[in-house]
Amino acid sequence: MAVASLRPLSALVNSVAAAGLMVALVLVLAALAPASHGAAVCTVDWGGTADAEAMTGFLHANAFFYHSPDTMANATLCGATLRFSSPPSSVTYALYAASSDTPAAYTRVFADTTTSSINAIGGDAYEVELVQKLPLVAGKYYALAVTSSETGVMYREPAALPALTCDGGISYTRSFSASSTVLPSSLGAVNTSTAEMMGGSLTICPSCPMPPHVRGGTFFSSSSVVGGERMAPGDTATYWCLLSRAAGISIVCQGDGAYDREPPMCIRPSPPPPASHPP
Residue 246 pLDDT more than 80? Predict the structure, then answer.
């Protein structure tokens, strides 16, 4: 479920009225070309088709380090694919975080308890539907884990780890695997390897900061990022000027971590010039 943030209208209306601004406001929208806020979307392959393993009731995870300084513009984990020669119809997933690359340090920070569909996108690749984007913090380790109660034949591939990717923004560090249908609170008891990865890919997207408040106006924002403290590409915020009947104006978070335009400004119209009188 998307996280929505609604700014109350009543307090702002009262403050405007108290200031004596009881005139119609007009909505001024200044379009702005998006500025670069870091790298664009980065999709990196986790592995190929060197080894296939059939598992009924499986758990797999790949771990990575998100580097500091933050070269990915407040990145979010916004997509993932898995590689199967015979896929299950659905999976569940969870994100784990750790301060060090020690298996017991990886603790679950988000889990989607509903099953997520996986969609064929060509060949042996299947896209996992991430209902919400998962925010990343530079300087931390993460692991994306997937599990299913169905039978799936997943590919794994030998890898020299750690492996640096995404222009130095991400390092893959290890994988986890188990015959389990449970996403545990910690990965400390799950088998781990630093010599192979589960087949698939990971997509990292920059995110936008939360939209700013505007004087004399209010806005509604809908964030698809867990926690609702960032805006992912495609998320929108709609602004309205108080005491104005103008339609709401929306700004959209873009794939480079910037909005497609500046938020509107709610301003008073200029007074008419004084009437001229004959001498």
Answer: no
